[in-house]
Amino acid sequence: MLYYNMTSVSTNIVNLQEKIRMIEIPKNVYDNIINIVEKHYPLEACGVLLGKIENETAKVVEVKEIKNVLESASMFWFDIKEWMNVILEAKERKLEYIGLFHSHIKGSPIPSLPDRHRMLECPEEVWIIVSYKSGTKPDIAAWRINDFGSSIMKLRLEIK
Length: 160
Description:
Elements: H1 2-14, E1 22-25, H2 27-40, E2 46-54, E3 57-66, H3 80-92, E4 96-104, H4 113-119, E5 126-131, E6 139-145, E7 152-159
Parallel strand pairs: 1-3, 1-7, 4-5
Antiparallel strand pairs: 2-3, 2-4, 5-6, 6-7
C-alpha cells in the first residue's frame, strides 16, 4: 500500500526530471544538513532537499528537517503528510522538490537494501546520504535510481 501511495504522490506533487546527474549544494546548506545530523546523533536524521533543477543539475538552496518516525539508529522513514506539506509549501515559494537526505550512523554513505527499496517508490528523487560518527568528518554522497529503473547511480556532488 505504501508503494502505491508514494507513487500517487510522486506523480501529483513531485514532478521531478529524471535526468539529474549532478547536485550542487552551497556550503551553508551543507552545514545545515550536518547540524541536523549531529543534533539527532546517534539516531538517523532525515530531511527534504529543495531548490531548482536546471538541465541535468539540481541546485539545492534549502533543506527542511522532517521527523524520523522510526526513531532508529539504523533506519529512517517519515510521516507522509509532513513530507507532502513541506513540498507543497516549497512549491508556493517556487522551489522544486529534489529529494531526501538522511544519515547513516553505522557505515558508509551507500544506500542500504531498505534504502534501495524506498528509492524505487519515487525513482526520480535524489537521495543524499551522510555517513556520520561523532568526532569524525562526515562522508556524503548523492544517489538516484538510474534511467532504466534497474540500479542505483551515484551522482556528482559539489559543495560550493
